[in-house]
């Protein structure tokens, strides 16, 4: 990780600017400058270039420190692999990790969508208030798996058989059993008294996956910023050699 906060602070003080004056020149808030200097956040590419112009410092010097800029030796003893090749291999490994994180992000996003749908169904189907005094025995046509969904059948006010698929938290239920559920005011829907633990557990799992998704997204963003800083430095180094 590139920690440039202390160097931003050092060059800002050398330029005789306090945080408010520097923030005004940058067009940002003083809190943003404070976060940069404490390495709580990174300036984006445009602001990084602007910082170098205002503080009159080279990009490589700001990123790596004066006299600490990495050199690119042309030869490495041993198997004959050059240092540049080693750097490229390191970059490839970093890109591979970034690609894996992106795949993981997509998988986690799909899981989060599924969890949100499940929780939404539980909240919609739950008997929060009395939809009616109507309740009766509903036939379990097919159980897909315990504590998951099942096909239920019941008769509406006109005597028509209605099939509906719902999520159950009734242990031990089998095909052909009858369970007591609310069928709504017009008999057009099923409402269940889910256990509090079922709703809480599903909501907790959803929040965990959402938090993991956010953390993966932040890590991907951080890696992209580091790649951007590395590209700037490499371009600067190449220009200086030319």
Automatic annotation (TrEMBL):
InterPro entries, alphabetized: Cro/C1-type_HTH, Lambda_DNA-bd_dom_sf
Superkingdom, taxonomy of origin: Bacteria
SMART domains: HTH_XRE
Ranges where the HTH cro/C1-type domain occurs: 8-62
GO molecular function: DNA binding
TM region(s), chain numbering: 103-124, 199-218
PANTHER family hit by this protein: DNA-BIDING PHAGE PROTEIN (PTHR46558:SF4), TRACRIPTIONAL REGULATORY PROTEIN-RELATED-RELATED (PTHR46558)
This protein's name: HTH cro/C1-type domain-containing protein
Source species of the chain: Coprococcus eutactus
């Amino acid at each position: 990780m590139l920690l440039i906060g202390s160097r931003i602070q050092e060059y800002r003080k050398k330029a005789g600017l306090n945080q408010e004056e520097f923030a005004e020149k940058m067009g940002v808030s003083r809190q943003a400058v404070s976060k940069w200097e404490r390495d709580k956040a990174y300036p984006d590419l445009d602001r990084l270039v602007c910082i170098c112009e205002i503080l009159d410092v080279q990009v490589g010097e700001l990123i790596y420190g004066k006299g600490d800029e990495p050199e690119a030796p042309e030869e490495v003893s041993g198997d004959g692999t050059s240092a540049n090749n080693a750097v490229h291999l390191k970059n490839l490994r970093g890109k591979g990790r970034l690609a894996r994180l992106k795949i993981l992000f997509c998988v986690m996003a799909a899981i989060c969508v599924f969890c949100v749908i499940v929780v939404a169904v539980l909240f919609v189907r739950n008997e929060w208030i009395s939809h009616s005094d109507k309740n009766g025995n509903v036939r379990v046509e097919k159980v897909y798996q315990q504590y998951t969904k099942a096909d239920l059948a019941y008769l509406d006010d006109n005597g028509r058989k209605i099939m509906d698929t719902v999520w159950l938290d009734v242990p031990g239920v089998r095909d052909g059993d009858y369970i007591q559920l609310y069928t709504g005011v017009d008999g057009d829907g099923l409402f269940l008294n889910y256990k509090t633990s079922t709703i809480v557990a599903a909501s907790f799992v959803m929040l965990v996956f959402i938090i993991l998704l956010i953390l993966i997204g932040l890590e991907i963003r951080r890696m992209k910023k580091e790649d951007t800083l590395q590209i700037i430095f490499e371009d600067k180094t190449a220009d200086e050699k030319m």
